[in-house]
């Protein structure tokens, strides 16, 4: 009985071993097939740029805001009832009408000023003739000198009244024109600060009017780094509409005693910047150092890792960890892993695998 059991167990063990060998063979075949499939992966189409030796500085990121150079609260310059006002969001050209004030009383005042001027001008004509007549009489000793001086004085006083009346005509004419409140620059109505039918006094605010074309970026910067902030130097600006390289316009040379910050302003031309847009600005925090730099588009951020690919002489992709030293504008300085002149993938890196063959489409300029 024991011999029969032993033979049976031996046969079972052999069958089990054969099954394991067969499974191992299948797995080996699958692994080989998978490896062969990876080896047969077609070359990837990529674009490359050359790594460069550049002077780059470590940076500090600060938050900034897009502001308008002309953000005004337009006020009434004459008294009266508001009769019209443009709607919020309306774009208005310079010198176009923003609002109007009832000008009927202003028109009456202007007509009265014109009438008074004409009356004085008529009186002036009479005074001129009177002086001429007394000058003729005095020349023939038919009038006293004192009488001549009297009529001349009266004429001169009327002349001054005429000048005063002319000034009043100009003033009332100006008031009549200012009843139409006009845009001092091209911009957009942001808010209505008065409504139709309200009586406005001189200085009453009517609209908030903002220039949306002439803008700047304002940001605080630590006092400690002001020596590295030079007017005209370009810095990297990141916003919802992309990355930009913008020049520093000025660094206000007065710091806040509490925050130890100074105000920095950047020129923001060349792109559409809605007023109030938040941005992140990279400012240099030390002197620039000579570094190997690659275009910012070369860096791939994936699963919490930063890496890039360089193309070797065999036209195969080599993955390199992006050990970033600093970012300035559209360039990234690296501590190690890349040499100046290396071909760096800037398009098509997202799907590349280490060791994969590549076909360079064109050299980026």
Notes on the structure:
It is a single chain. This protein is α+β, with helices and mostly antiparallel strands. The protein folds into four domains: about 45-55 and about 290-365, conserved putative lor/sdh protein from methanococcus maripaludis s2 fold, CATH 2.40.420; about 60-70 and about 215-285, Elongation Factor Tu (Ef-tu), domain 3, CATH 2.40.30.170; about 70-75 and about 85-95 and about 185-210, no CATH class; about 105-180, Helix Hairpins (Orthogonal Bundle), CATH 1.10.287. It is built from three helices and 24 strands. The protein has helices spanning about 1-40, 105-140, 145-180; strands at about 45-50, 50-55, 60-70, 70-75, 80-85, 90, 95-100, 180, 185-190, 200, 205-210, 215-220, 235-240, 240-250, 260-265, 280-285, 290-295, 300, 305-310, 315-320, 325-330, 330-335, 345, 360-365. Strands 1, 18, 19, 20, 23 and 24 form a six-stranded mixed sheet that branches. It has a six-stranded antiparallel beta barrel with strand order 3-12-15-14-13-16. β13 and β14 (about 240-250) form a beta hairpin. α2 packs antiparallel against α3 (about 145-180). The N and C termini lie far apart (about 85 Å). Residues about 1-10 and about 30-40 have low confidence and may be disordered.
């Amino acid at each position: 009985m024991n011999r029969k059991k032993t033979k049976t167990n031996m046969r079972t063990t052999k069958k089990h071993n054969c099954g394991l060998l067969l499974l191992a063979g299948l797995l080996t075949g699958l692994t080989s097939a998978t490896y062969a499939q990876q080896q047969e992966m077609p070359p990837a189409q990529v674009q490359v740029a050359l790594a460069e030796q550049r002077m780059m500085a470590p940076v500090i990121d600060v938050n900034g805001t897009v502001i308008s150079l002309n953000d005004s609260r337009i006020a009434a310059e004459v008294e009266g009832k508001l009769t019209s006002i443009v709607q919020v969001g309306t774009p208005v050209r310079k010198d176009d009408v923003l609002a109007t004030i009832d000008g009927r009383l202003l028109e009456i005042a202007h007509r009265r000023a014109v009438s008074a001027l004409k009356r004085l001008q008529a009186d002036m004509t009479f005074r001129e003739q009177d002086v001429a007549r007394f000058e003729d009489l005095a020349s023939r000793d038919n009038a006293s000198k004192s009488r001549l001086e009297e009529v001349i004085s009266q004429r001169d006083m009327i002349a001054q009244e005429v000048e005063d009346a002319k000034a009043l005509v100009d003033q009332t004419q100006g008031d009549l024109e200012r009843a139409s409140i006009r845009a001092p620059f091209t911009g957009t109505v942001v808010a209505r600060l008065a409504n139709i039918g309200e009586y406005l006094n001189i200085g009453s605010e009517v609209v908030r009017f903002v220039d949306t074309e002439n803008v700047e970026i304002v940001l605080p910067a630590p006092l400690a780094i002001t020596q590295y902030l030079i007017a005209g130097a370009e810095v990297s600006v990141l916003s919802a509409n992309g990355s930009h390289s913008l020049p520093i316009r000025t660094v206000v040379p007065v710091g806040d005693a509490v925050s130890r910050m100074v105000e920095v302003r950047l020129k923001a031309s060349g792109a559409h910047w809605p007023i109030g847009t938040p941005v992140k600005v990279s400012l240099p925090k030390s002197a620039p150092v000579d570094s190997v730099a690659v275009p910012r588009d070369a860096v791939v951020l994936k699963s919490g890792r930063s890496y890039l690919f360089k193309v070797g002489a065999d036209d195969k992709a080599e993955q390199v960890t992006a050990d970033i030293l600093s970012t300035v504008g559209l360039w990234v300085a690296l501590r190690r892993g890349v040499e100046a002149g290396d071909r760096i993938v800037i398009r098509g890196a997202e799907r590349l695998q280490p060791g994969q063959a590549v076909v360079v489409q064109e050299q980026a300029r």
